[in-house]
Design brief:
- The complex is a heterodimer of chains A (115) and B (113).
- Chain A is mainly beta.
- Chain A contains no helices and eleven strands.
- Chain A has strands spanning 3-8, 11-12, 18-25, 33-40, 44-52, 57-59, 67-72, 77-82, 91-97, 104-105, 109-113.
- In chain A, strand 4 and strand 5 (44-52) form a beta hairpin.
- The termini of chain A are far apart.
- Chain B is mostly beta strands.
- Helix content of chain B is 0%, strand content 51%.
- Chain B has strands at residues 4-7, 10-13, 19-25, 30-31, 36-37, 39-44, 51-55, 59-60, 68-73, 76-81, 90-96, 103-104, 108-112.
- In chain B, strands 2, 6, 7, 8, 11, 12 and 13 form a seven-stranded mixed sheet that branches.
- In chain B, strand 6 and strand 7 form a beta hairpin.
- Classes of the chains: A mainly beta (115), B mainly beta (113).
- Chain A binds chain B through residues 35, 44-47, 50, 58, 60-62, 94, 96, 98-103, 105-108, and chain B through 38, 40, 42, 48-52, 55, 61, 93, 95, 97, 100-107.
């Protein structure tokens, strides 16, 4: 049974960099697309971007200039970095396995941006 | 970008009755080469990530009870719950995965009447 486990800092100050890791257990990164999404009361569910097992990426244009998504196949992990955060980036962040329709999700990571 | 719009925003249905949630996409999400609609439905309960119920607009995910069904074509889609159970209280979302950026509806909150 595939499980996705997330971790990372939950409280950031404006202008700092959000950094989250998603470990994939019980399955391989190979053959799938891996996405990051976020959910906030104001903007609902928002797709941030995705990466496949060979490192090809695609990002939401609204966040593209600030986002980095990478994979570490040796550790079976993917990561998200979002720089120059503001209060508008406060949300629950999820990793999920794609492509497209998401049958496996991480547990979610609440990230709060506050001075 | 494709905008997904759900209706209603909230819905109260009696136990054992049918619940129907609608979703409209701003563009067609039918891929003509395989005749599939790139639409998914999710159920989300408080404190949990979304749970995939339906993909390709009408295919139930493994383990999803058969009281859940999806239908529709073109730009109009429906999620139906044939006989509402107490455990179905949740927020339901539709999502298009036809093109990036993938996008979700605003959600429909389903409650017991």
């Amino acid at each position: 049974q595939v499980q996705l486990q997330q971790w990372g800092a939950g409280l950031l100050k404006p202008s700092e960099t959000l950094s989250l890791i998603c470990g994939v257990y019980g399955g391989s990164l190979s053959g799938f697309y891996w996405s990051w999404l976020r959910q906030s009361p104001g903007k609902g569910l928002e797709w941030i971007g995705e990466i496949n097992d060979i490192g090809s990426t695609d990002f939401n244009p609204s966040l593209k200039s600030r986002v980095t998504i990478s994979v570490d196949t040796s550790r079976n992990q993917l990561s998200l970095k979002l720089n120059s955060v503001t209060a508008a980036d406060t949300a629950v962040y999820y990793c999920a396995r794609g492509p497209g329709d998401y049958g496996y999700w991480g547990q979610g990571s609440l990230v709060i941006v506050s001075s | 970008d494709i905008v997904m719009t759900q209706s209603p925003d909230s819905l109260a249905v009696s136990l054992g009755e049918r619940a129907t949630i609608n979703c409209k996409s701003s563009h067609s999400i039918l891929y003509s080469s395989n005749n599939k609609h790139y639409l998914a439905w999710y159920q989300q309960k408080p404190g949990q990530p979304p749970n995939l119920l339906i993909y390709w607009a009408s295919t139930r995910e493994f383990g999803v009870p058969d009281r859940f069904s999806g239908s529709g074509s073109g730009t109009d889609f429906t999620l139906s719950i044939s006989s509402l159970q107490a455990e179905d209280v949740a927020v339901y979302y539709c999502q298009q995965y036809y093109t990036t950026p993938y996008s979700f509806g605003q959600g429909t909150k389903l409650e017991i009447k």
